[in-house]
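User: I'm writing a tutorial on reading structure tokens. Could you give me a worked example: one chain, its sequence, then its tokens, then a sentence or two explaining what the tokens reveal?
Assistant: Sure. Here is the example chain.
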Amino acid sequence: MKKRALSIDALRGFAIIAMILSGQIVLTHLPAWMAHAQVPPNSSFDPSIYGITWVDLVFPFFLFTMGASFPFSLGNKLANGENKWKLCGQSFLRAAQLVFFALFFQHMKTSVISSPVTIASCLISISGFALMFFMFADNIVPESTKITYKSIKISPIKLLAFALMYNLSYQGKNSSSFDIYFSDIIIIVLANMAFFASVIYIFTFKKPYQRLLVLPFIMAIFLSSTNAGWVKDLYDYTPIPWAYKFYYLKYLFIVILGSLAGEYINQWINSDTDDDSNDVKKQPYLLAFSSLALIISNVYLLFTRQLELNFVSTVALLLVIHFVIKNDETSFGILWKKLFSVGAYCLLLGLFLEAFQGGIRKDDSTYSYYFVTSGLAFFGIIFFSVLCDYFKYIKATKILVMTGQNPMLAYATTSLFTTPVLTLLSVTDYFDIFNQNAFTGLMRGILFTLLAISVTMFFSKIKCFWRT
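And here are its predicted structure tokens:
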């Protein structure tokens, strides 16, 4: 029986759920560790603050899973002999789809269309949400009516969506008309990764070391861009500044490392070794616990700036994991050893780089941030590999897996569906209750997150997935 790996979906699901939660909680009365480290509650952006919080793990974990999916979305096609240039073209079209998603999603928010929010703006947002099904769902309309990778066509639905964006009058943003520079920055970054990271993977297929050799050049360009010269010109050049900046390519450090995790999992899936999970052992429990403890301790101790203690505890936990898996020669053991080796290397490298650039920080992001978060993502994959794939706790992780299988829909649901619907039902009139204290502020975030998850799981159950 072919093995199934749900760990990538589970980690992606955790990332998207945490992303929704972090964006919906009321921070007024909450502690600083509930927000981005550099943007404490009731404060403006402060780059002099160093450290990370759980919120700062959300985006890199999502990027990591994007890279981890390459061996499945691209690697299997390459293994079957598909033309590399054709796949590059497909990756470009996927990036273009994401750019359109970023523009349309941002322009369809109720608070952007009108201020204060009106019934009309809610109905427009919901209509935009419905249109996105016809643009991105993979089983709504025939392939011949969508932009496909076989023939470049402009979908009538996309023309309708663009006409809607272009002709709306916006009262909730600086410009009252459509603005091509007004887009969701997270999706724009993902679009850049969808193209550049994919191309790198395509031309380094089965050559992971060559793939890693790209990273020092990316680092060199960033370091040299502070001085005048051709490297700075390369860094500054952008033919389409609304969709591409070299600055976005800093996240290649995370995506490319994530592709290694995906390759290890793909190798495990295709290995001839039988499924070992029937012989349940106690060691994997310790492995999962230690991996989770490693993530939590690093976030807490880096945030509180207990750097020496963090390094010592990290080494101790790594040693525990090493001894837990060192004699495990099962297919799971081999997988976990590979993930552990690269994850431990990245994490320790990131901790040794911690003092560089003042300290670990998401904004403006540091090299320590890239490697620490990537290292922790490896241990996140190990944690979910134990739970989802080894012990097969399917029901317990179902929410994460099903949400992780439909991340685009989950990302758009709160802004374009649940919030407008609650506004139309006058439920939002009572939202001031959430501003009273930390508990109610957190409850608001949990409520909106559960609503978004429920909608996402419904469409996942009926096999309706948004794809690019």
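What the tokens reveal: DSSP finds 19 helices and no strands in the chain. The radius of gyration is 22 Å.
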